[in-house]
Amino acid sequence: MPKLWNETIEAHRRAVRDAILDAAWVLVAEHGLTSVRMSRIAEETGIGRATLYKYFPDVEAILIAWHERHVADHLERLVELRDRVGDAGERLEAVLEAYALICHRREHRGTEQVAALVHRGEPAARAQRQLIGLFRDLLTEVAETGVVRDDVAPDELASYCLHALAAAGSLPSEAAVRRLVAVTLDGLRPPH
Amino acid sequence: MPKLWNETIEAHRRAVRDAILDAAWVLVAEHGLTSVRMSRIAEETGIGRATLYKYFPDVEAILIAWHERHVADHLERLVELRDRVGDAGERLEAVLEAYALICHRREHRGTEQVAALVHRGEPAARAQRQLIGLFRDLLTEVAETGVVRDDVAPDELASYCLHALAAAGSLPSEAAVRRLVAVTLDGLRPPH
Prior knowledge:
Two copies of one chain form a homodimer. In chain A, helix 1 packs across helix 2, helix 1 (3-31) packs across helix 4 (59-82) and helix 8 runs antiparallel to helix 9. Chain A is built from nine helices and no strands. Helices cover 76% and strands 0% of the residues of chain A.
């Protein structure tokens, strides 16, 4: 087959896959994890049940794929903020704030069941390592500008950031999240 | 019955209960959660099986009680450090370091199964609230001395501390834990 045709098939498969993930997510958000069936997902996506099973074996696999895509989107957004042109300190602040807001919105979406399902296993661990790596690289770069302390290794500071910002999950407002980001950033500054 | 007699019985019951918790914990640490039976716990404690069942219905209940006692001991230790005579800033540092070391040792004990069992439900949630309360009270007190920032509310700072210090669980050494405490403390100081 010509290359173009293969690409078209690939794009089509990706579009169907995305539509399945979106449909499953909408159904889970509306009706809860346990009441969503494969047949309902096929119907909502506008495909046959047999086609759906060519993509995924069960609802759990769909939700895990949804979460992987969701995490990949978040990582992409954070990488984009990190790699922007401009002052390293400002980029650090932008990444910290974006991550804190992700934590904040996650806890407010009321999807604890799904979280318990997807926050284990290798994909989740890999995403966590990528996140740590992203923070570590940025902190290493920023440390050279003197904006960030150099008496603690960047990977230890990265772990501090990720844990501290996770507090955003239990904060009541985005204003409180921004205060948390300011406090966390002050911990990163060179000591007086 | 005279009061003294009641107190003696109460003390005896408490001693038996403590011995059961200790025995169960030793067995779980040695053999793993799933291979520990009630009969083995009774044997290790030096009591009959029937007596054991008067105290606890199953292994899970014993481990939950063990964890409650364990958490209560930790809280007591933190309260004791908080209430010492002396400089408020130093007491804050002592409490932060003690809590970080608790997190550090917890993750290094290899008791993930037990953690999954006990870190849910009302007693765990109550302990978490007590911990937040302890940090908040101390931060409120210290804020008055000017050692801690007053542009963020003490309960938000308490949540920041607890989350940031939980990073101690994945740190490789106590030296790294002390660096984490220093970074976390710097986040609490009045901004330059």
